[in-house]
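Handout, tutorial session.
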Amino acid sequence: MTNQNKNRLLYILLIANLALSTFYLLSDIINVRFSTEPTAPPQERIISIDTTAPPPIIIQMPRQPTPKPIIVYVDSTGSSVPTAKIDTSKHEKANLYRDSIEDENLTLYYESTVKGSLLKNALDYKLKIPKLITKKIEVLKPVPTPVSTLLLTGGVGGNVNQFSSIRLGLQFVSAKGWAVGYDYDLLQNVHSVNVGVRLFQLKK
């Protein structure tokens, strides 16, 4: 076999291998794209949590003797009949027990109608809560502290016949209750010095 024939045979084998690989690749793509096999739906995971209810709160009411029954008449439904509408041929006697029980928290009212068995039972209650709640608030009022003061003073004077005095001055008032001042009379050319003490203090 010549070299030319060998090269031709190798070229044919290479083309055949390439064609076969391309065929298998296309077959896999077609199978994946057009596959009709059903897929499994996603599953939901449910987690259950056990909860324990808190124990009930039981209030023990004080025991007391059973009250004396009141004779009433009841109809076929077990309801009490008013006195004006009682018909002994239709209505039957029954015992009505009415009383109340109380402790430091509440008052319980009950009304039971009994005729061999319990026909009616009505319950009501009233909490012992104060209706008016007051709260005392103490407000502290600040007491003013005395302070020292410097005053500018002035005055005029004279008699019925003439106006003869005009005074200007300064006065220092101490927080401790004493005062000292100076003034000058512009018309009389007189200098004056005065002092003073506090006699009493007025309250507001």
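The second record follows below. Compare its token runs with those of the first.
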Amino acid sequence: MRNNEAEMYPINLKLDNRQCTVVGGGEVAYRKIQRLLENNAHITVIAPMVKAQIKALAQAGKITWRQETYSKPLLEGSFCVFCATDNRGVNRQAALEAKESGMLVNVASEPELCDFTLPGVVQRGRLQLTVSSEGASPAFTRLLRQDMERRYHQGFGEMAEYIEALRQELIAEGAGEGKTTSEQRQRLWRQALTPDIIELIYNQELDRAKYEIRNAINRARS
């Protein structure tokens, strides 16, 4: 039961050039840093000591390491704060003080303090599949992510790119007088993208899937 707790709103954030602060320097903090780097965030780590990999990132200029014990002024300018020390009291203090300053907060060990949680992610090209338990069971989320990795092969990313190219083609045609409207394009996609297409992709019959999609669109337009 959720005990009347509101569900989290699923959202994807762009963190390009956003200031993200990680409080902590251990393995959990390192995992947060890795994902933030993948999203081009500006990262500051606050910890008196860090593991070797974090230190190497700081030496390479990829992150900023504030070699200090946590204090609230070190959070200044942060968009979001990840509390990932092995000290529950420090995590709670940092979380509450970040919230006071209007910053988004993630606490690795205490979901109830989180403004957001980090889903398990499977990336297939531009297609991003995520799964989350809202912090209730990271182990179960990890198991589901591993299952998704097996089910959704790289061909799904290739198909996403193909469909995007077709979409842009239809939009370009719609720019001319008498061409397709937005509502007409939506009807085309509903006819072209069927459960049968998903089965073809699962079976890695990508060429046939592309052919069937193009064929369905052409039939709907004729």
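Points raised in discussion: The two ends are 52 Å apart (CA to CA).
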